[in-house]
């Protein structure tokens, strides 16, 4: 854990420590002007348990390249739930999840 007064350099130094997985809790403190994109991209992609790393995981997820990236637990769980229900869902290219809408009256 780091205090909200941590500088960008202090955060970057902690990210290279030997850890199994890491979550960068957003939003970062706006008072200290820490660059969010810099911090999220410093995280080793193999340790990015949120899949948020903009230059790798989030980009691969948005392109549908699911075999070579980390899929975070919430979207992975949602997709598994959809598969298990057997229902057809319309998933658009927007950031909004749209559940199946029944046409029955």
Automatic annotation (TrEMBL):
SUPFAM superfamilies: Aminoacid dehydrogenase-like, N-terminal domain. It comes from the Eukaryota. One of its GO terms (molecular function) is methylenetetrahydrofolate dehydrogenase (NADP+) activity. GO terms for biological process: tetrahydrofolate interconversion. InterPro entries: Aminoacid_DH-like_N_sf. One of its GO terms (cellular component) is cytosol. Coiled coil: none annotated. This is Uncharacterized protein. It comes from Amphiprion ocellaris (Clown anemonefish).
């Amino acid at each position: 854990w780091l205090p909200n007064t941590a500088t960008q350099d202090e955060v970057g130094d902690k990210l290279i420590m030997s850890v199994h997985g890491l979550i960068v809790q957003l939003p970062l403190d706006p008072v200290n002007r820490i660059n969010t994109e810099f911090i999220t991209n410093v995280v080793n992609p193999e340790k990015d348990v949120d899949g948020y790393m903009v230059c790798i995981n989030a980009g691969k997820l948005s392109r549908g390249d699911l075999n070579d990236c980390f899929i975070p637990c919430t979207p992975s769980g949602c997709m598994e739930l959809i598969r298990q229900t057997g229902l057809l869902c319309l998933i658009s290219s927007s950031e909004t999840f749209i559940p199946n809408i029944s046409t029955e009256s």
